[in-house]
Amino acid sequence: MDTTFDILIIGGGPIGLACGLAAQQAGLSYVILEKGCLVNSLYNYPLNMTFFSTSDRLEVAGIPFMSINAKPTRPEALEYYRRVATSKHLDVRLFEEVTRITPNGDHYTVQTSRHTYTGRHVVIATGFYDIPNLMNVPGEDLPKVRHYYKDPHFYAMQRVIVVGAHNSAVDAALETWRKGADVTMVIRESGIGSRVKYWVRPDIENRIKEGSIKAHCHSVIQAIRPDEVDILTPEGVVTVQNDYVIAMTGYQPNFSFLEQAGITLSQDEKRYPTYNPETMETNMPRLYLAGVVCGGMDTHVWFIENSRDHAEKIVRHIKNS
What we know:
The chain is an alpha/beta fold. The protein folds into 2 domains: 4-131 and 251-320, FAD/NAD(P)-binding domain, CATH 3.50.50; 134-247, FAD/NAD(P)-binding domain (3-Layer(bba) Sandwich), CATH 3.50.50.60. Helices cover 23% and strands 25% of the residues. The protein has helices at 14-25, 40-43, 74-87, 167-178, 201-210, 255-260, 304-307, 309-320, and strands at residues 4-10, 30-33, 92-93, 98-104, 107-112, 116-124, 131-132, 145-146, 159-163, 182-186, 214-216, 220-225, 228-233, 236-241, 244-247, 251-252, 287-289. The strands form 4 sheets. Strands 1, 2, 3, 4, 5, 6 and 17 form a 7-stranded mixed β-sheet that branches. A 5-stranded parallel β-sheet has the order 8-15-9-10-11, with helices on one face. It is globular and about 60 Å long.
């Protein structure tokens, strides 16, 4: 098996695939290394999720994405990216986690769970969906607490607390309620987040207004126990009987992985990685970032639709260097 390449691409999500397609078109040797399944983050999205973006804005390398409705669903996206990878014969090596990136002269050595690779250039396109933002409260490590939400049927006839007020939390609250769960939302802010999908907002606001879904605003979880949860509200601590906590508190990139690779991060709470926006090259020569990983803790800044061109910038810079 060949282990020396022009470009080593870490991450087999949509932007990692776009980088592979750009390298392929430019005649550069490459490999895409993915620790999970193909487009692993999208696979771990909720089963019934509908994208905010239209299908044409999720396309990579100009390959048409056809969906039944204007807003594609998770199954449609999985099918699209699978067909992109197979029809273009992309060299994607799945279930192979990268554990270390080490400079080696004018190359990089990349160690994975299976092999060691050498590349003149490395692209990190690992996204941000791997590490949840913790609430750091007693009981958060109990089995009843979930930081990922998948299928609403699991929560039928259960007493569910949903933490958060943005798209993931709103979808979880509405879907579990419709499956018969008794749902309470715990919202740090004054109400539903401003970025919630416009066709969903009236639904959740009306369910809260009519009392079908209970909501505590300006509130946080204070403690979690096997059968109940303490919620700190403006009126004081409220104890709620509870079976499951779905903590949709967001996620963050693997900052320690970036730092191990030598990439410098800003010292504020945003933890922005250092890179040139014109070329996507980091402070480490020939080491690039692509996709949502560029945003640090601002995980809502970059999406598939506005970071697809990162692949073209990177390959153009490599070809011209």
